[in-house]
Amino acid sequence: MGGGAGAGAGGWGVMEGMKPVAGMVVVQFVFAGVNIFYKLAVCDGMDMRVLIAYRYLFASVVLAPLAYFVERKKRTKLTWRVIFLSFICGLCGGSLAQNLYISGMKLTSATFASAMTNLIPAITFVLAVLFRYEGLAIRTVPGQAKVAGTLLGVGGAMLLTFYKGAHVTLWPPTNVNLAAQLAARHHAPPTVPGGDSGNRVMGSLLCTGSCFFYALWLILQARLSREYPFHYSTTALMCLMSALQSSAFALCFDRDVVQWRLAFDIRLLAILYAGVFASGVMLVVLAWCVKRRGPLFASVFNPMMLVVVAVLSTLLLGEEMHLGTVLGAMLIVTGLYTVLWGKRREAAAAAAEHGKVNAGEVLHIDVVVHRHPPPQQEQSPATTTR
């Protein structure tokens, strides 16, 4: 009976430990869909700055009432510190990260910009060590595994993006190219991304800045979750701040009413998907995962998105699969599980050390209790004699 109970408790612990992993996998699949909708909206002629503004506006509309009803009984009073942290999180993880990414993509290419996003795990690892959210511990096996896994993930994503290689046919072609259909319907001219070397350097700096601010957001989000552990409320606040910031930024560059007008087309679908699912529901899941397992755990899943994008692009956008995609995906998965293994070993070692400390405290108490009676027994005869 005891063994069965122990096995049941162990199985429940494994299930609980897998929840953040499953959550991050779902997040990356949804974010991969955002990239597909981004590409379709661009082919439809939509201004990306307007799309980002609408994305966070819709997310705020969805999350505000949800946060009110779900957390109204347990939510504590908002402080100015929490509001300020939400403003900074919205600025770093929403407005700055997204707009810098788009500006860099316009000066270079979508492929180059998406490749640069794989610097996020490395930048997050450095920031997490600097802010003491993660221990480097380079001389330990778990520390070496985390460093090696992060480098493997970044290297695999770079290989997937920059190296094409031979054509690989994994399934029969679907002959579906939604992006080409939208571009042909709107007579969109073909774009030649930044051939100028100066533009490429500036685009690279902008994309690097986007990665830096996104990684900084992961760090700040962990701090915000600790100070105000109400995921719906903090996510709604962050989206509201990003909506205000992104709207002001978009209005500074594009005041054309046509760009802001919505109809039932791919633009509205992209806004609903990105706003409700990606910036609404998935940000809640992401914030919960960051609180449970730390910012490095969340950021190391980012290269997985490229694998999903590659598959969806092949099926829906008429793009071909190449050898570099397959090799890069293998490196990404290897790096992912290497980091997770290192973090698991590190957590197990910390739990074992904590158990030793507790055992030492109990042993100390036992020694003190057992050594008290002898002096009392020796003194009682003396007292009686007197």
From TrEMBL:
Source organism, top-level taxon: Eukaryota
Protein name: Uncharacterized protein
Gene source species: Avena sativa (Oat)
